[in-house]
Amino acid sequence: MFRWLLLFILIVPALEIGLLIWAGNWLGPWWVILLIIFTGVLGAWLAKQQGLETIRNVQNSMSMGQVPQDALLDGACILVGGAVLLTPGFITDAIGFLLLIPATRSPLKRLIRKAITKMMNNGSVTIYRR
């Protein structure tokens, strides 16, 4: 897991810089700056809308006496998606929007759920109980 995280931390910024330079040459620097600002504002608005909807889903689940597992995973995806959208760049914006839009978030949640289950079954994640 650490290797993938390190690779992500090293490779993604380099790709982002290259893509921003290429887009700046192709569109012009001012259009790229405006596009970065626009995606940040749109992402913040979308994160707020999805976050409020998730809070309502958690409240509804808890009022019916259910554990809001799916809503909590939604909340984590929205949190990461919103944070990633605040960083300038096209790759991180694409990842952020994938995590914020419900239609694309559902398949990603299935993958995340499988990864968590696999880590728990392999013993990489320990759950402490009192």
TrEMBL record:
Signal peptide: none
Alphabetized UniProt keyword annotations: Membrane, Transmembrane, Transmembrane helix
Residues annotated as transmembrane: 5-24, 30-47, 71-101
GO cellular component, one term: membrane
Protein's name in the database: Membrane protein FxsA
